[in-house]
């Protein structure tokens, strides 16, 4: 075991006295006489410390700074074994609303002076990707920062002022800076005025201040499977006299089966086997490398070794659980992700949040939500394990019966029937199938719009993506239907104006998911734009000939495509035709919303613009990557998604 010299700083109080961090609302843990207010947040530095290299000792743990592992383990065992509180499941609303509501219902009351640590899953991703391709590599894999913002607002409302958001990370300090920018955590922490901390220490970025990433030795681990485990000081401080909230992402996981409260604790793991300690997290699952080599080689013994490695990993994670069990778990599933948790992501239909004060029962309910509890197909792949071995080992170690956990909250009805599962395992197996979007109800055609009215204007609107006063004259057509006429949760609003200079349309889009290749230029016509996010407009310029119409596609970043279609001609499409487009777009990433504003000024369109004209029109929207949506103002009602159905066009009415 590597030994490290001691930092010259005040010793940390050892964790003692079983129950000192009790989650009992009537007996809050003892607090220091004074608790300092949170310092000004500096999310541009790691652990709010020096941004440049400082020569000094390596990662340190010295005897006075040891954490009392035996006392912590005894306290955790007693608390979790006695905790039979229900698990709360909420559904509906935004990630922010779910985080706030779940916190209000589940987080136990503490004196306002109690420091609060919120640990989301910030580092559960492979690596960054080019965001211009529509996937930054982080979103969907990690806890939504808006969910954490909801928790922050909740505890602020209770009077807490010292609030820290923190997770472990194995990358360089510059990678942490990139992560908090790409993920949105940096902006969220700055706006909410809370500390944002990497629970890491490389001997460089944690030499000042409270040293939350300083690794502390833990006594009493000689007979565990993690004898060299260290604990970040920031976590130890909150386990001793604070409120520790775990906020994991609800997702399936290619190795651990699913990732929730127990698996999330891997983010804080440090080991003294080598330096820097924070880059030794891999040692928790070190046996997997050999197993995957055999899997790749198609070795007949690969699966057995893979399962054995997972069982050992589970034992180690439960050893960590005995030391670091959070006071409460608030898990974000807005949406929950199935697949492998990293590269192949398939979101569930409904936004949910799952929470409780017993991390084991929260994981049990989360497993059921993901369809990975008592799953026979999973057992066939994992040597008889019908759920994650992490959950099985935890329940056995703590003596907790997981047969029928009590579920409360407005999402409890989600468990009335068996839940579907989809897991892609590292050992080259799959359980279940990708979730399809829950089909909405077919809406009564009599209740759906059939016309889009365009108001006349003398002064055409400025095409800049802003909703200026001119648009107040235009009636709004709102649609939520897909091509089949089913209702969806995605809303599109369309307005139209016409003038002597052209036809003007404004699209307001909500529920946008990032799926646009921004590496492509916006000033060159974009073929196959329909394969990404875009709105589509089909307009027949002669009411007597619906089979001849213009097709215009525009994306939320200004990409475009336009052709003239004649279904009775060969070839059908005239790619030389130009709509004479002018385009303006704006986006609101915080609300997942965008505005697309266009002017169509081609001579043939201008000739068709006469007062009281009624022109056949189709208005459509393509949205999403993981779950593709084919949305239509005037549904085509074809067996498979298709927009080229002139008989289903609605009517553009040019009001006089």
Draw up the topology in text:
Blueprint: E1 67-68, H1 69-82, E2 87-91, H2 95-106, E3 116-120, H3 145-157, E4 163-167, H4 173-183, H5 185-192, E5 195-198, E6 215-219, E7 229-232, H6 233-241, E8 243-247, E9 249-253, E10 257-259, H7 261-264, E11 270-271, H8 288-296, H9 302-324, E12 328-339, E13 345-347, E14 352-356, H10 359-369, H11 376-381, H12 389-398, E15 407-408, E16 422-425, E17 429-432, E18 451-456, E19 477-481, E20 487-499, E21 502-509, E22 534-539, E23 548-554, E24 560-566, E25 573-574, E26 581-588, E27 593-600, H13 603-608, E28 614-623, E29 629-632, E30 650-654
Parallel strand pairs: 1-6, 2-15, 3-4, 3-8, 4-5, 8-12, 9-12, 18-20, 18-30
Antiparallel strand pairs: 2-14, 6-7, 7-11, 9-10, 12-13, 12-14, 16-17, 19-20, 20-21, 21-27, 22-23, 22-28, 23-24, 24-25, 26-27, 28-29, 28-30
Note down, in words, how this protein is organized.
- The chain folds into 2 domains: about 45-430, no CATH class; about 445-655, Immunoglobulin-like, CATH 2.60.40.
- Helices cover about 20% and strands about 25% of the residues.
- Residues about 1-65 have low confidence and may be disordered.
- It is an alpha/beta fold and about 650 residues long.
- It contains 13 helices and 30 strands.
- Strand 16 and strand 17 (about 430) form a beta hairpin.
């Amino acid at each position: 075991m590597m030994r490290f010299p001691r930092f010259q700083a005040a010793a940390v109080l050892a964790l003692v006295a079983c129950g000192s961090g009790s989650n009992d609302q009537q007996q809050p843990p003892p607090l220091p006489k004074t608790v300092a207010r949170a310092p000004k947040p500096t999310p541009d530095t790691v652990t709010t410390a020096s941004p440049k290299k400082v020569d000094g000792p390596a990662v340190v743990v010295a005897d006075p700074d040891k954490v009392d592992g035996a006392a912590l383990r005894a306290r955790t065992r007693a608390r979790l074994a006695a905790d039979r509180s229900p698990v709360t499941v909420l559904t509906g609303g935004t990630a922010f609303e779910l985080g706030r509501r779940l916190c209000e219902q589940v987080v136990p009351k503490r004196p306002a002076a109690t420091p609060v640590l919120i640990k989301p899953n910030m580092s559960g991703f492979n690596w960054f990707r080019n965001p211009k391709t529509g996937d930054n590599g982080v979103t969907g894999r990690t806890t939504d920062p808006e969910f954490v913002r909801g928790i922050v607002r909740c505890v602020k409302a209770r009077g807490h002022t010292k609030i820290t958001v923190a997770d472990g990370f194995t990358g360089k300090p510059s990678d942490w800076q990139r992560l908090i920018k790409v993920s949105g955590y940096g902006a969220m922490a700055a706006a909410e005025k809370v500390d944002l901390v990497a629970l890491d220490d490389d001997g460089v970025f944690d030499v000042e201040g409270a040293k939350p990433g300083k690794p502390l030795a833990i006594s009493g681990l000689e007979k565990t499977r993690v004898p060299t485990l260290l604990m970040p000081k920031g976590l130890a401080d909150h386990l001793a006299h604070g409120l520790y909230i775990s906020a994991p992402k609800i997702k399936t996981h290619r190795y651990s089966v699913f990732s929730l409260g127990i698996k999330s604790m891997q983010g804080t793991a440090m080991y003294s086997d080598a330096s820097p300690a924070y880059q030794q997290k891999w040692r928790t699952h070190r046996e997997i490398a050999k197993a995957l080599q055999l899997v790749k080689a198609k070795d007949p013994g690969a699966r057995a070794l893979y399962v054995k490695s997972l069982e050992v990993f589970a034992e180690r994670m439960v050893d960590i659980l005995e030391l670091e069990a959070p006071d409460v778990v608030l898990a974000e599933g807005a949406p929950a992700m199935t697949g492998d948790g990293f590269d192949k992501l398939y979101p569930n239909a409904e936004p949910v949040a799952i929470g409780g004060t017993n991390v084991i029962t929260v994981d049990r309910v989360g497993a059921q939500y993901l369809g990975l509890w008592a799953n026979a197909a999973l057992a066939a792949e994992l040597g008889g394990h019908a759920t994650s071995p992490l959950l099985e080992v935890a329940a056995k170690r703590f003596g907790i019966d997981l047969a029928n956990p009590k579920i409360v909250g407005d999402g409890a009805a989600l468990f009335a029937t068996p839940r579907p599962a989809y897991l892609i395992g590292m050992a080259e197996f799959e359980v279940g199938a990708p979730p399809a979007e829950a089909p909405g109800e077919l809406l009564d055609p009599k209740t759906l719009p059939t016309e889009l009215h365009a108001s006349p204007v003398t002064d055409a609107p400025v095409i800049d993506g802003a909703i200026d006063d001119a648009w107040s004259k235009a009636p709004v057509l709102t649609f939520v239907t897909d091509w089949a006429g089913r209702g969806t949760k995605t809303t599109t609003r369309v307005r139209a104006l016409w003038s002597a200079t052209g036809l003007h349309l404004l699209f307001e889009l909500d529920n946008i998911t990032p799926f646009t290749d921004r590496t492509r230029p916006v000033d060159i016509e974009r073929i196959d734009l329909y394969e990404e996010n875009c709105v589509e407009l089909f307009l027949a310029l002669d009411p007597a000939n619906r089979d001849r119409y213009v097709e215009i596609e525009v994306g939320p970043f200004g990409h475009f495509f336009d052709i003239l279609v004649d279904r009775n001609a060969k070839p059908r499409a005239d790619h030389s035709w130009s709509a004479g487009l002018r385009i303006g777009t704006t986006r609101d990433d915080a609300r997942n919303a965008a505005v697309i504003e266009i002017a169509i000024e081609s001579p043939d369109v201008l000739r068709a613009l006469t007062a009281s004209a009624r022109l056949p029109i189709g208005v459509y929207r393509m949205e999403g990557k993981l779950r593709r949506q084919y949305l239509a103002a005037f549904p085509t009602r074809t067996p498979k998604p298709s927009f080229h159905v002139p008989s289903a066009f609605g009517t553009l009415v040019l009001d006089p």
